[in-house]
Design goal:
heterodimer; A: 325 residues; mainly alpha; MetI-like fold; two-stranded antiparallel sheet; 2 strands; globular; B: 276 residues; 11 helices
Chain lengths: 325, 276
């Protein structure tokens, strides 16, 4: 319970941040050339000034900017994100449709990066300054410097064009109607390359942090005690070191949540996944500012939620955190 | 001098420096080796690399010399990376210094703003900025700088927090130095080294951000940028994959060089912090 209230307090503290972001981006978008009505008129193939005026009044765009801002925030409280002129649907609906692929992509990329970062970090730390460590650290550095979209393209060339093992893009095979387990497998095969692509840079970061944190924990007194008790090395690593070494990794998940969401914009475009990131890109290209603002809101919310979960996880791994409060 | 010796003792740091010098050399020599406009038509489209001595790295979909674009692209990448880093570090140091020095409600407000910038995904904010201000070389560079300042700000703030109650600062305060002088002349020189070292990371990320933006065709299309070329090559990926592959290697090498140099500087300047 204590953990929950602690994390809850941090969650409450992030509400002003969210409001700050929304107000900032809202005002920023006022500077953008053209508004929703311009986009709609272009969509309709033009129209006269009277129609435009009428539409502006209908959408409340003729009000002063502070009034518009107040209206927008008030609508947000009721979870109304406005209307997307491009998609002809409420922004909330458009975003909800696009959310599942992104969440799936982020979860699988994160799991991939976390798991292999952990494994390789442990291997590197145990063979510190010997060849496994050097090899893993070097590969990690190269992964860190690889632009994700480029890696994605090269993966498509190798695995989709030459080897023809995996699909080159899309979320699922539209031609075949699959149900149940086959559909799941189909989606999974579409997500392998995007997850690898998105997870690569995080794999590099996690393995570096894991290695450093392992080396630090391995030098602590309680590890020496465990060794003195005669425990074997595997047991020491799994039971004593790992749990403590994991703490910085968990912190990192929260810190990197935003970067990962940003990365999915590029990855989803490379693999033409119908996700939130691609929606962000499309709304910039199509000047659908209402949708863009909605995406800003949802992605900030997502980052805050991930941080909330991370807080809970953190307190679970290290009971002292909950006890201290 | 010790730091210099320590730097050159690390093979990774030396490799990084060599790679960086090569990229800088490419940027400098681009004008002499390829004096023509790199975006001008040069020959037949889609010539494979190493088949025609005139186009060592081949040509792209519209018959432009890839090698020329790589050399001129080095200029753009270093320019955008460098200037964006300068902007990010300048804003970050200013915000961090004021927040860390004054503390209290000023610190509170500034840190809230920093947090807001960190909560909003970098790349999404970058998209918003490009949507609003357009995508010329100048706006993209400034936009990349604007999304990158929070980390240097936090670093500077932490340094200021630990330095502001040190004896030399107290001595200065007793002498009646004004705040501005204390911040700029006394604390800042001591707080700056870790921030400058961190600038390596900022620059690496800035180059990657710009190339991603260019790949999405949201950066300036009128300059020879590596990201632009990768985006173009995507249309002919199925067979002529080299159009995308070559500029990607250039980005990889540049980012690798910048991060290796940053890491090397960090280890050389803070020998105690170096992991075994």
């Amino acid at each position: 319970m204590r953990i929950l209230s602690l994390a809850g307090r941090r969650l409450a503290a992030s509400i002003p941040t969210l409001v700050l972001i929304l107000v900032g981006v809202f005002l920023l978008l006022q500077l953008a050339p053209g508004d929703t009505v311009d986009a709609m008129m272009a969509q309709m193939g033009g129209g006269d000034a009277a129609t435009a005026r009428e539409l502006r009044r209908f959408y409340g765009l003729d009000l002063s900017i502070p009034m518009q801002l107040a209206n927008y925030l008030w609508r947000l409280v009721r979870l109304d994100l406005g209307f997307s002129a491009i998609y002809g649907k409420p922004v909330a609906t458009v975003i909800l449709e696009r959310l599942p692929p992104t969440l799936l992509l982020m979860t699988s990329a994160l799991s991939f990066a976390f798991f292999f970062g952990l494994v390789f970090g442990v291997i590197a730390a145990r063979g510190v300054n010997r060849w496994p460590d050097t090899l893993i650290s070097t590969v990690g550095l190269i992964f860190y410097a690889t632009p994700s979209f480029w890696f994605g393209l090269m993966a498509i060339v190798v695995f989709s064009i030459y080897l023809q093992w995996l699909p080159a893009g899309g979320f699922e095979d539209i031609g075949a109607i699959r149900t149940g387990i086959w559909r799941v497998l189909d989606i999974a095969s579409h997500l392998i390359l995007p997850s690898l692509t998105l997870g690569l840079i995080f794999l590099a970061i996690y393995l570096r942090i894991m290695r450093a944190s392992m080396l630090e924990v391995l030098n602590l007194d309680f590890v020496r005690t465990a060794r003195a008790k005669g425990l074997d090395e595997t047991r020491i690593i799994t039971r004593h070191v790992l749990r403590n070494a994991l703490l910085p990794m968990v912190t990192l998940i929260g810190l990197q949540a935003g970067t990962m969401l940003g990365g999915s914009v590029v990855v989803e475009t490379v693999f033409s996944l119908p996700g939130l990131g691609r929606l962000a890109y499309e709304s910039v290209v199509q000047r659908d500012l209402n949708t863009l603002l909605g995406i800003v809101f949802v992605s900030a919310l997502l980052v805050i939620l991930v941080n909330f979960v991370t807080d809970l996880l953190y307190a679970r791994l290290d009971p002292r955190i909950a006890a201290e409060s | 001098m010790d730091a210099l010796k320590r730097y050159f003792r690390s093979p990774a740091a030396v490799l990084g420096l060599v790679l960086l010098l090569i990229v800088v050399g490419m940027a400098i020599s681009a004008g002499y080796l390829y004096p023509r406009d790199p975006l001008a038509l040069a020959g037949r489209p889609l010539v494979w690399p190493f088949t025609n001595p005139r186009f060592l790295l081949g040509t792209d979909n519209s018959g432009r010399d890839i090698a020329a674009q790589i050399f001129h692209g080095a200029r753009i990448s270093l320019l955008i990376g460098g200037v964006a880093t300068l902007i990010a570090v300048t804003i970050g140091v200013m915000v961090g210094a004021i927040a860390g020095y004054y503390g209290g409600w000023i610190d509170n407000i500034l840190m809230r703003i920093t947090e807001a910038f960190q909560t909003l995904p970098n790349f999404v904010l970058l998209l918003v900025l490009v949507a609003v201000f357009g995508s010329t070389l100048t706006t993209v560079t400034i936009a990349v700088g604007i999304v990158s300042w929070p980390a240097p700000a936090r670093l500077t703030r932490a340094e200021f927090l630990s330095l502001r109650s040190r004896e030399f600062v107290q001595a200065g305060r007793t002498l009646g130095m004004p705040d501005a002088q204390l911040i700029l002349r006394e604390i800042l020189p001591n707080a700056l080294p870790p921030v400058i070292v961190y600038a390596g990371v900022v620059m690496a990320v800035a180059i990657l951000l710009e190339s991603a933006l260019a790949f999405l065709r949201l950066s300036d299309a009128n300059v020879a940028s590596w990201g632009n070329l990768i985006g173009l090559g995507r249309d002919v990926l199925r067979v002529q994959w080299y159009v995308s592959a070559i500029p990607g290697v250039a980005i990889l090498i540049t980012v690798l060089a910048v991060s290796l140099v940053g890491q090397g500087l960090n280890d050389a300047l803070n020998p105690r912090l170096k992991q075994r």
